[in-house]
Amino acid sequence: MASGAEGIVLLDHGSGGRATHQLLREVFFEAFERSPELLDAALLEDLQGPLAFTTDSFVVSPLFFPGGDIGSLAVHGTANDLAMVGAEPLFLSCGFILEEGFSLRDLRKVVRSMAEAARALGIHIVCGDTKVVPRGKGDGLYLNTAGLGRLLRSPAPHPSRIRPGDRVLVSGPVGDHGLAVLAAREGLPLKGLRSDSAPVWPLVKPLLEVLGEDLHALRDPTRGGLATTINELAEESGTLIYLDEAAIPVRPEVRGGAEILGLDPLYLACEGRFVAVVSASRAAEALDLLRGLAGGEGAALIGEVREAASRPLVVLRTRVGGERILPVLTGEPLPRIC
């Protein structure tokens, strides 16, 4: 299989023949703890519903960045999408689009990282696919995933359940992932940046169990950041959401780096945070619960839901005491961050 000291991906690895089988055995099966069966589909045990199903693709550049890589990011991103509808992540599929010439050493690192992230969450990677495209056509590696999970309770968190008077919480500081990836890609000498890529189910599950129906909605602020995510919730619920800028947690390294680059941290992507909309009577309890869990120490109460006077809006009370409308992100200032 090897070509060179560590070996590279060859077009032959995508042929379906001997080289493909060798790649599967030596790179994927061992890492994912799967038996070397070449079935066309995964056979799952009888699952009791209701279930949640999601799919995602990952084209992040660079593939390795402070705090993670495309492999762990794919697991976290897919599992977090399931968690946002109150579903425990159970099974994952993965599709690898490999470019001819890609380092087999780096491929092994990505696969191991993916396997470790899945094991930490108790997720089973049950099926997958590999394709190889000619040199110059694939930018190294793209990943596609699909995830299956079981809803923990019904009704599931949903924006339609948001009501005026609800409170808005965020599980930790925002903007880390987007700025860390940008700095790594461009070689910017910004210190202290690290992606927040992490699974949120260990935080979401206790919230679901304790708050029950008082947990009204969940959303993860990935592309478009916190500002766009809150706008989505306002639009989908037909409400006005009022945020307090001073209450929104942003690490000093992120705030400083964003100021240097002329970026707003509220539009920078997160990959290990979530927004929770909860009933007013349980907001303090929810905040205390999150802050007492590993990974939720930086949680904050950042706003409240109000009646929309004319149309759904997000209004930000600024640090200097003024108010302004916080719009949806326009354009794509930071491509290839997930």
TrEMBL record:
PANTHER family reported in the protein's UniProt record: CARBAMOYL DEHYDRATASE HYPE (PTHR30303:SF0), HYDROGENASE ISOENZYMES FORMATION PROTEIN HYPE (PTHR30303)
Know the name of this protein?
Answer: Hydrogenase expression/formation protein HypE
> Per the UniProt entry, what are the Gene Ontology biological process annotations, in alphabetical order?
protein maturation
Indicate the secretion signal residues: none
The organism named in the record is Thermosulfurimonas marina
Q: What InterPro entries does this protein's entry cite? A: HypE (IPR011854), PurM-like_C_dom (IPR010918), PurM-like_C_sf (IPR036676), PurM-like_N (IPR016188), PurM-like_N_sf (IPR036921)
PurM-like C-terminal domain: which residues?
A: 163-308
What lineage, starting at the top, does this entry show? Bacteria, Pseudomonadati, Thermodesulfobacteriota, Thermodesulfobacteria, Thermodesulfobacteriales
One Pfam match, given by its short name, reads AIRS
Family in the record: Belongs to the HypE family.
Q: Which residues are in the PurM-like N-terminal domain?
A: 40-150
